[in-house]
Amino acid sequence: MSFNTFGHLFRFTTFGESHGPAIGCVVDGTPPGIPLTEAEIQVFMDKRRPGQNKYTTQRQESDTVKIISGVFEGVTTGAPIALVVENEDVRSKDYDDIKDTFRPGHADFTYFRKYGIRDHRGGGRSSARETAMRVAAGAIARKILGPGVTIRGALVKIGGTAVNRDNWDWAEVDNNPFFSPDAEAVKTFEKLLDDTRKAGSSLGAVIEVVASGVPAGLGAPVYAKLDADLAGAMMGINAVKGVEIGAGFEAARLSGEENADEMRMHEGEVRFLSNNAGGVLGGISTGQDIVVCFAVKPTSSILKPKRTVDTNGNDTEVSTKGRHDPCVGIRAVPIGEAMMACVLADHLLRHRAQCG
Questions:
Q1: Confidence (pLDDT) at 75
Q2: What whole-number distance in Å separates Cα of residue 204 and Cα of residue 328?
Q3: How many Å apart are CA 152 and CA 291, to the nearest integer?
Q4: Positions of the chain with pLDDT under 70
Q5: Residue 83 contacts residue 136 (beta carbons within 8 Å)
Q6: Is the dihedral of CA 231, 235, 237, 242 positive or negative?
Q7: 327, HSE (Cβ side, Cα atoms, 13 Å)
Q8: Burial class (CB in 10 A: 0-12, 13-18, 19+), 109
Q9: Which of 59, 96, 58 is nearest to 318 (CA)?
Q10: In the 8-state DSSP scheme, what is residue 353?
Q11: pLDDT of residue 325
Q12: Could you give the CA distance from residue 106 to residue 65 in angstroms, rounded to a whole number?
């Protein structure tokens, strides 16, 4: 299987399957001399970890990360950093009934058509379980970016219900199971997902990720546009079907004067009066907040029966049992943060290599 590596100067390669003995990644390109501990990575692993509340899958994984190489006496050596997380709560028998059946909305059909074989146990390599290692790599990327860059994500919509942006409070994100910046929306989300789960269905979500403190100049104007790489990173997350940078699709509705981010001098520095561009102009960062939104489709594994076919070409129906997120978008928040960090760290190293 090709293309298990993400990035250029800062890059990582993931390995492992949903129901295999372990998952892991090898992170390459990390500069030497950066302090790094397992505990610093674990903070972000815990944000994504399953089984923490009734609104996510009840699979119980500690997601305890182990550093295997690339760190000596608490600092990076410049060598590849190998990370491993053991799978602790595997129930492969939950998938025995569908081992020959393609789940609609899943990668089962395309995976089988491409490779002629598929691991039916939780989706194998195509499972969102793999994203745990993206979060681990993202923790290292944050160390490269340094404390001056802050990356924060929030869930802004579940199904047709959105947060009230007038109530936006970043401090609230870590106080509820939805990563919601709007405390008043939490009760609504709770009822919405309770009803959805009881109905045997699922809902999609929209996630917003914001990076503050990013210096101007990251990215390139032609084939390494920062916003293009960010869009590709977010689209590469399981179940993501759409990405917007800044105003995104809304920009098509605006007039030229409304969309243009006007500028003024302020204390010797250029200050933008708005941020419809989402912090990127001509593929290069402006120094403003970088704002990315992405849409996550509803979880495809649901109890409601759906029409499908099997590997022998027979029409049939499928109802997926097991432990699944009623809204997989919830746990996509720390994954989106991680991918933002990885792209920015990669572009920071590329910028230094060219411009010093």
A1: 98
A2: 7
A3: 10
A4: 50-54, 56-60, 89-92, 94, 322-323
A5: yes
A6: positive
A7: 31
A8: middle
A9: 96
A10: H
A11: 78
A12: 28
Q: What type of residue is 35?
A: P
348 touches 356 (CB < 8 A): no
CA 143, 46, 324, 299 dihedral sign is: negative
Q: How many CB atoms lie within 10 A of CB 165?
A: 10
CA 351 to chain centre: 24
pLDDT score recorded for residue 127: 84
Residue type, 341: A
Q: What is the pLDDT of residue 60?
A: 66
What's the pLDDT tens digit per position in 15-58?
Answer: 998 888 899 999 999 999 999 999 999 999 999 886 666 676 65
What is the 3-state secondary structure of 68-123? EECEECCEECCCCEEEEEECCCCCHHHHHHHCCECCCCCCHHHHHHHHCCCCCCCC
**Tokens read off for 135:** 């979060």
The pLDDT value recorded for residue 351 is: 97
Contacting residues for 63 by C-beta, under 8 A, at least 6 apart: 42, 45, 46, 48, 49, 50, 85, 132
Structure tokens given for 126: 């195509």
CB 294 within 8 A of CB 242: yes
Reading the block at residue 62, the tokens are: 């500690």
Distance CA 48, CA 202 (A): 19
Locate the DSSP E strands across the chain.
Answer: 5-7, 11-16, 22-28, 65-69, 71-72, 75-76, 81-86, 150-158, 161-162, 205-212, 240-245, 263-266, 269-272, 280-281, 284-285, 290-296, 306-309, 315-318
Smallest CA-to-CA distance from 156 within 220, 204, 87 is with 204
Give the model's pLDDT for residue 174: 94
CA pair distance 319, 323, nearest whole angstrom: 13
CA quadruple 166, 170, 171, 173: dihedral positive or negative?
positive
What is the spatial distance between Cα 240 and Cα 196, in angstroms, rounded to a whole number? Answer: 20
Please give the sequence-ordered ranges of beta strands (E in DSSP) within 33-73, or none if there are none. 65-69, 71-72
Look at residue 289 and give its three-state secondary structure. Answer: coil
CA angle 276, 337, 189 (to 5 degrees): 85
